[in-house]
Amino acid sequence: MKNLNKILITLLSLAALTLASGSSIAKPASPETGNLATLVDIAGKQRMLSQKIAKAYFFYGQGIRADKTRKQLLDSINEFNHNFQIIRKSVDDQGIQDMLVYIGMAKDEMATLAKQPYSKENASLVLDYSETMLEGSQDIVSRLEDMSKLKKEAIVNLAGRQRMLTQRIAKYYIAYQAGFHDHNTVEQLKTAVKEFEEAHATLSKAKLNTPEIRKELIKVDRLWKVVAKFYKDVERGGLPVIVLATTDNIMTTMNTITRQYVEALSS
């Protein structure tokens, strides 16, 4: 997008100044092996929140379930900040610490925009900052996974990524309805839909699945069939309240599934 280069330059400059200043940050501890799955889950949730914040901003800006989506917007920003601090204090990997500085600049800019009146210009910035936060959070997930010798946390990553994809899909769906009809919006939506369906098929066959996990995956499958047709025919639009409610229901169910995988790995 046209704002992206400007945003990247600004964030990199601010990050460099912050690192150069030697600001006092308490030295975090190295995560114990048993905590890696939990940290992957938390970092994975940051990916989801980066998209949920932007999605809620658009739904609120369009006046759709305004009370609910405004609360969702502010609650998601607060949760992102809370998780940000957990990761910062839990990991001493320098690459992760540097990435957190970068993400921190973007999240603060996003929080500022959330307090301003909705406008298409601000909405464009929100889209770009949400991409920055997503990319940085994904980098942290990958680094945490690399710390694991057994790589069992990969299934936590995959399930957790489904949470993000639900919000990413809804973000681009409502962005299109808000007037962002560019090629990128449509392609990002289609790609996210395809990735969600492929990952769901993989999770459904996972050897780690318990009867409880299978039950939740079946629920996701049923909910997906309700809204997938809207995502795949975004140009037609319509029924945004159903899209909002069903997408968030899928996200909540995937959050349960991700937690169940974490518990299965810890047992």
From TrEMBL:
Alphabetized Pfam families for the sequence: PilJ (PF13675)
Statement: the UniProt record of this protein carries the keyword Transmembrane: yes
Compartments where located: Membrane
Entry keyword annotation includes ATP-binding: no
Domain annotation NarX-like N-terminal: ranges: 35-89, 152-234
Residues of the signal peptide: 1-26
Protein topology in the membrane: Multi-pass membrane protein
Superkingdom assignment: Bacteria
Cellular component per GO, a single term: membrane
Keyword terms of this UniProt record: Membrane, Signal, Transmembrane, Transmembrane helix
Record-given protein name: NarX-like N-terminal domain-containing protein
Source taxonomy: Bacteria, Pseudomonadati, Pseudomonadota, Gammaproteobacteria, Chromatiales
